[in-house]
Amino acid sequence: MQYDIAAIIQGYAQGYFLMADDNDGLSWYGSRDRTLIPLDERFRYPKSLQRVLNQERFTVAINRDFPAVVAGCANRETTWISEELKEIYFLLHETGFAYSFETWQGDELAGGILGIVIGGAFIGESMFYRIPESSKVAMVKLVERLRQRQFVLFDAQMMNPHLERFGAYGIGDEAYQALLQKALQRRCSLV
Question: pTM (2 decimals)?
Fold first, then answer.
């Protein structure tokens, strides 16, 4: 199947995201409330995670094994990442828009975050872990990287208790769109 990458990126740039429904059909979704991971002093994490970070049990990499991260994110009882959406992620990856931010323990992929980068926006699509704490370490290291690279926004799309522990907060659509437009003016690179 042929996909219009420019149109897909345009959809994300307008604040929408793709998800497969129960019948594996792809649709665009928007939300009146978005969840952001703060890139300022509001970002926080549990003290127990600081010990894990100090132990340096994990190394981080970007795009070392993109297909494995997509597979890890899709490997759930109920997943919104269909085969078609995987194809789109691979195309976005090939064209420089989709990235995997990974944690490794030696030669073993421990966990990772799948995201789309447009300008100064990192749109987190999904995350997974195989080794406990690895996706949390990925989150901390990714935020550090986004700060270093002057990103404006880390969109986590929907709130959950896991993200709340990192200081994630909800933002209304109007404020989100304004921040997204500011982010799109930046030229940021994850690598």
Answer: 0.94
